[in-house]
């Protein structure tokens, strides 16, 4: 997801917009133009007359790729670079020696590909990411995408006895769904959200990462006595706060609380778990544990202050290691943890974390060679390709593994450990990709931002946010989604 940062403000760094574009992948910066909406609306239905004839399905070719048909792959040209994809293309061409893959990379996904969708001649595989990401909801709603279920049900590249879907990290398949069972998107990168900190700083306080809120307050008090704030966050973009707050709500009340919030159910925000967590975060403000001036800081400024040791904890995603690499000291010992809970009465165990996919790959419905596009993804979801990606760009992939034998950076190593601790207790709130305005401007800025700055109480914030959610639920101009 990379970042939910201020891509639209002009303040986002290259690290956020390009290198860690996972959040763009989650739809946070996807603002389709009317021309694209019109193009999609006018290009639905019909078959591509250039459709390649499907090949024979065999053990080595389970998707039935035509071994003489060309395949076209368009990649978003961002911070992850092109090399990992080009390496995977070489494997495709080796497996199908009569084929030459047409590979290209661009930062202008929408303006480059919109006309081709309109003409019914899209590429076979697209990395739909970046500031010009095409709107997923429009693509799905206008039947522009191929269902990737055949890929997911195909034998995995490494083990013919295991389906591709059984090799993926928790939540990846569900993220690609909108309504019902079809899977329209394969999110390739994988982001760990949580509370980030310096292990060195925590050790200097002779403290361990707090598991209960009383312990959290005690650690913050220790930090305060040593001249360090307990917390900071992107005050100008307070929709970063949910990276640790939402999984805390899920930990305290159970994942069904987050599902109800995502589903825009009446009174979902009035659940006792929401109140308990809002009260807890507000206590950080009341006790003076928030870095002074935080409400005026953007994501880069808050991360820089944190990296310099002015604050102990910051809610963020795993892109922070790359994005703040120039300010994080060599001996910082970057670490991430699942959110602190309230106490032993929490519904889910400590370690419950938010982690989800980013970097969305799609196969257009009118692709000339959709089997080829899916086969390229099957190759990319192998252990070798996953390791190659992680080694080169310091990010995990959707493949559940691929880190054995790799020298991991501190943050990546900590993220892997956090996922291992979480096990099946991985949450994936969907507000940020289902309802962008609600999540960012209303819940984030108008709700949480005002509360954490001390300008509203938790009760006032909850009432306001519930009102926003109710309005969104009644808004017939937007498409509504629900957990299946």
UniProtKB/TrEMBL annotation:
GO cellular component assignments: cell envelope
Alphabetic keyword roster: Signal, Transport
InterPro entries: Bact_solute-bd_prot1, Chitin_NgcE, SBP, TAT_signal
Subcellular location: Cell envelope
Listed Pfam families: SBP_bac_1 (PF01547)
UniProt KW Nucleus keyword: no
Ribonucleoprotein listed as a keyword: no
Main location: other
Family: Belongs to the bacterial solute-binding protein 1 family.
Classification via PANTHER family: ARABINOSE-BINDING PROTEIN-RELATED (PTHR43649), SN-GLYCEROL-3-PHOSPHATE-BINDING PERIPLASMIC PROTEIN UGPB (PTHR43649:SF31)
Protein name, per record: N-acetylglucosamine/diacetylchitobiose ABC transporter substrate-binding protein
Organism: Streptomyces guryensis
Gene: ngcE
């Amino acid at each position: 997801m990379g970042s939910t940062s201020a891509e639209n403000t002009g303040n986002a760094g290259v690290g956020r917009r390009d290198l860690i574009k996972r959040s763009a992948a989650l739809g946070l910066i996807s603002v389709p133009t009317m021309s694209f909406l019109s193009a999609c609306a006018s290009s639905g239905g019909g078959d591509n007359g250039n459709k390649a004839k499907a090949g024979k399905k065999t053990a080595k070719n389970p998707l039935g790729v035509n071994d003489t048909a060309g395949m076209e792959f368009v990649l978003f040209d961002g911070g992850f670079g092109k090399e990992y994809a080009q390496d995977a293309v070489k494997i495709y061409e080796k497996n199908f020696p009569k084929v030459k893959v047409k590979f290209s990379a661009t930062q202008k996904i929408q303006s480059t590909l919109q006309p081709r969708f309109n003409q019914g001649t899209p590429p076979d595989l697209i990395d739909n990411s970046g500031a010009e990401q095409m709107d997923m909801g429009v693509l799905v709603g206008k039947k522009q995408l191929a269902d990737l279920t055949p890929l997911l049900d195909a034998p995995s590249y490494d083990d013919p006895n295991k389906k591709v879907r059984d090799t993926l990290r928790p939540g990846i398949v569900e993220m690609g769904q909108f309504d019902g069972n079809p899977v329209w998107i394969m999110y390739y990168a994988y982001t760990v959200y949580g509370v980030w900190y310096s292990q060195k700083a925590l050790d200097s306080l002779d403290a361990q990462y707090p598991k209960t809120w009383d312990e959290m307050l005690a650690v913050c008090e220790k930090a305060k006595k040593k001249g360090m704030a307990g917390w900071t966050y992107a005050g100008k973009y307070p929709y970063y706060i949910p990276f640790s707050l939402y999984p805390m709500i899920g930990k305290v009340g159970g994942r069904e609380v987050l599902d109800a919030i995502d589903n825009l159910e009446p009174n979902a925000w009035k659940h006792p778990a929401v109140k308990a967590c809002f009260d807890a975060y507000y206590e950080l403000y009341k006790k003076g544990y928030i870095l002074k001036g935080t409400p005026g800081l953007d994501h880069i400024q808050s991360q820089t202050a944190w990296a310099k040791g002015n604050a102990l904890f910051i809610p963020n995603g795993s892109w922070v290691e790359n994005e703040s690499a120039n300010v994080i000291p060599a001996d910082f010992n970057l670490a991430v943890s699942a959110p602190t809970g309230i106490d032993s009465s929490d519904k889910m165990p400590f370690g419950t974390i938010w982690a989800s996919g980013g970097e969305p790959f799609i196969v257009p419905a009118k692709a000339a060679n959709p089997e080829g596009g899916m086969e390229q993804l099957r190759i990319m979801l192998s252990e070798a390709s996953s390791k190659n990606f992680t080694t080169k760009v310091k990010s995990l992939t959707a493949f559940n593994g691929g880190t054995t034998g790799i020298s991991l950076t501190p943050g990546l190593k900590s993220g892997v450990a956090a996922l291992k601790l979480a096990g099946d207790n991985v949450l994936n709130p969907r507000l940020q990709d289902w309802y962008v305005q609600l999540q960012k401007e209303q819940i984030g800025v108008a709700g949480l931002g005002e509360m954490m700055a001390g300008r509203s109480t938790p009760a006032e914030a909850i009432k306001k946010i519930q009102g926003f959610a109710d309005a969104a639920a009644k808004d017939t101009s937007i498409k509504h989604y629900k957990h299946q």
